[in-house]
């Protein structure tokens, strides 16, 4: 059976027994560092596997509880599915317990278990007081109804009950998406002698396979997953929810930092400006004012920046959600829906948290219009977000669309199936459905073109594609034209496109004069004037003369002796018949002149025309007949 993977976080105040509880659950001591052993506190994130049976496997993350190590704590819980909030029975709720609780709420973690540890150190009445205090603190939070389990980690009391509760909660938790684009925020970077650079992190989404090519963001360095380990055991793949170490090729430790992100596709945005939905803690020490310096914790990254409000100048403790923007000092990797925490640089405190509404924030004007725009952006369904983007962009390639909207590929596919009248994906591009009527618009353009230029065989395909490239990709327009010609909905001759029933013809308002002009050309036979002179005598405008010249030549109605002079096909046939009947297998210029009775001024261009048409072939001073008719 297929295994299911989740991440469980241990949170709570320092010295409340998180590491001891983790060891009791997993038999793994997550305090690895010498300093952690000496000081008996967790400094870095600790990880341990927890096999819950029935193909359910959890990665337990033991996060530091000390205030000084709050950034490690945030990095640890940012990717978890279930939290165990640890409270020691001998101390009860402490400041870090409250801050961890705020952080967990802001990060959108919905499921939690309260573990009351060290119950052996106090009597039963005091344990009840701690339980009551904890329930009071949880009122009004998503953890209000969380189960509460009494634990003595050293004696193993409550451990089995806790495991069963963890299993029960995870079975009701939706798994992370293992089929989408791979994303792993890096929380540890180190070098292994003889192996090279290794990174660790929790797979947020997708799957990584040994040997897979990857991209490091935001630096965009290319690398490859040379080897994988899941909880210190070799593996050929790691999926969403698993803790994994990757041995990377082509990079050094200096090329990477905590907060960098490994991805397999460029579906994720690298940005320094994000639109956010922000909620604040209830007990702000100071008001958060316009452009207040902040530290953003998102995934495993920590970046300084400032808050920009658009409908107010400060927030002084109200807990309502505010739509605003973060402008960061460094680029981060994020997508819509990612959760974050904001802390003030000084005095140090958690001021709030929320989620990313748009990772592609722009500079907006202060005012209600921007606030309303952000609200619309926040509430928008996937289909609405796509439509809003396409109204601005007209069309967009699938890769960029996924970046701009922060949609997953399966979400995009679902929208194209359920909302066929809104958007359509063609040739890798997404367009508004109104562009599906492109062929009808092409027909309208061609109809107007034929009316204006009835003697042309059609419109140049490149010109036609260019007309529609402002609201549709050229590749797609070209594909529509090709499919239409193959289906006989349009006709194509060389590079020219025309309506299927169109036949080039003389303009109706000039046809009589053109017929008169051609009669004159027939009458003059080989003693012709320039083609333009015939047109002027007939009273034709220059643009009509120019088009007529190309039209008649294309139709084989005239043949040019040189750049200016032309003879009609009728003249060419008559002279060809006369010359061929009065000569044998070949002839020279004198024979041709005597036969046709024309001056050398017209004779030389005429016989050269015969050579050009392949009717004769010149051999020194004579012409040899190849054939005696026009093809």
TrEMBL record:
Q: Which PROSITE patterns match?
A: G_TR_2 (PS51722)
Predominant place of localization: cytoplasm
Q: Which domain of life is it from?
A: Bacteria
Q: Which UniProt keywords apply?
A: Cytoplasm, Elongation factor, GTP-binding, Nucleotide-binding, Protein biosynthesis
Q: Which CDD domains match?
A: SelB, SelB_II, selB_III
Name where it's found: Cytoplasm
Q: Which SUPFAM superfamilies match?
A: EF-Tu/eEF-1alpha/eIF2-gamma C-terminal domain, P-loop containing nucleoside triphosphate hydrolases, Translation proteins, Winged helix' DNA-binding domain
Q: GO terms for CC?
A: cytosol
Boundaries of every Tr-type G domain copy:
3-175
- One term of GO molecular function: translation elongation factor activity
Q: Name one GO biological process term.
A: selenocysteine incorporation
Q: What does this protein do?
A: Translation factor necessary for the incorporation of selenocysteine into proteins. It probably replaces EF-Tu for the insertion of selenocysteine directed by the UGA codon. SelB binds GTP and GDP.
Q: What is this protein called?
A: Selenocysteine-specific elongation factor
Q: Which organism is it from?
A: Bacillus mesophilus
């Amino acid at each position: 059976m297929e295994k299911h993977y989740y991440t469980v976080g241990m949170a709570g105040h320092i010295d409340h027994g998180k590491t001891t509880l983790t060891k009791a659950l997993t038999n793994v001591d997550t305090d690895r560092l010498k300093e952690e052993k000496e000081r008996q506190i967790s400094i870095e994130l600790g990880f341990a596997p927890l096999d819950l049976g029935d193909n359910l496997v959890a990665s337990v993350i033991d996060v530091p509880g000390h205030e000084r190590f709050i950034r490690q704590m945030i990095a640890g819980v940012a990717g978890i599915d279930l939290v165990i909030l640890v409270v020691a029975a001998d101390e009860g709720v402490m400041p870090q317990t409250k801050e961890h609780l705020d952080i967990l709420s802001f990060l959108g973690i919905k499921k939690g278990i309260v573990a009351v540890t060290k119950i052996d150190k106090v009597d039963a009445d005091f344990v009840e007081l701690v339980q009551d205090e904890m329930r009071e603190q949880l009122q009004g939070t998503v953890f209000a109804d969380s189960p509460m389990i009494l634990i003595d980690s050293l004696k193993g009391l409550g451990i089995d009950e806790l495991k069963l509760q963890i299993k029960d909660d995870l079975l009701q938790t939706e798994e992370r998406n293992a089929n989408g684009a791979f994303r792993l925020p890096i929380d540890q970077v180190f070098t292994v002698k003889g192996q090279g650079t290794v990174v660790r992190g929790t797979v947020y989404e997708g799957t990584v396979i040994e040997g897979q090519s990857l991209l490091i963001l935001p630096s965009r360095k290319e690398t490859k997953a040379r080897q994988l380990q899941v909880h210190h055991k070799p593996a050929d793949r790691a999926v969403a929810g698993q803790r994994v170490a990757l041995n990377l090729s082509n990079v050094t430790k200096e090329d990477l930092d905590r907060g960098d992100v490994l991805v397999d596709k460029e579906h994720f945005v690298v940005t320094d400006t994000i639109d956010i939905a922000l909620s604040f803690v209830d007990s702000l020490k100071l008001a958060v004012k316009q452009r207040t310096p902040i530290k953003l914790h998102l995934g495993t990254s920590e970046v300084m920046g400032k808050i920009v409000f658009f409908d107010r100048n400060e927030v002084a403790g109200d807990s309502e959600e505010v739509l605003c923007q973060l402008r960061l000092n460094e680029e981060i990797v994020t997508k819509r829906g990612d959760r974050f925490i904001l802390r003030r640089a000084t005095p140090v405190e958690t001021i709030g948290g929320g989620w990313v509404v748009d990772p592609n924030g722009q500079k907006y004007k202060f005012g209600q219009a921007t606030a309303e725009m952000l609200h619309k952006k926040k509430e928008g369904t996937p289909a609405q977000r796509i439509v809003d983007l396409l109204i601005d962009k007209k069309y967009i390639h699938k890769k960029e669309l996924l970046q701009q909207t922060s949609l997953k590929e399966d979400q995009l596919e679902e929208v194209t199936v359920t909302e066929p009248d809104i958007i359509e994906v063609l040739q890798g591009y997404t367009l508004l459905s109104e562009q599906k009527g492109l062929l009808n618009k092409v027909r309208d353009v061609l109809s107007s073109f034929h009316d204006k230029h009835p003697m042309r065989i059609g419109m140049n395909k490149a010109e036609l594609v260019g007309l529609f490239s402002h609201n549709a990709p050229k590749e797609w327009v070209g594909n529509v034209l090709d499919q239409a010609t193959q289906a006989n909905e349009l006709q194509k001759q060389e590079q020219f496109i025309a309506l299927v029933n169109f036949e080039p013809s003389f303009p109706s308002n000039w046809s009589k004069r053109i017929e008169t002009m051609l009669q004159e050309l027939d009458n003059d036979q080989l003693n012709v004037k320039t083609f333009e002179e015939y047109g002027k005598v007939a009273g034709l405008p220059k643009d009509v003369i120019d088009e007529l010249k190309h039209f008649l030549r294309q139709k084989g109605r005239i043949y040019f002796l040189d750049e200016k002079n032309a003879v009609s096909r009728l003249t060419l046939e008559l002279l060809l018949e006369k010359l061929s009947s009065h000569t044998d297998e070949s002839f020279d210029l004198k024979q041709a002149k005597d036969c046709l009775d024309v001056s050398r001024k017209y004779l030389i261009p005429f016989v050269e025309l015969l050579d050009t048409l392949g009717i004769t072939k010149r051999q020194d001073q004579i012409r040899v007949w190849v054939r005696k008719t026009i093809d």
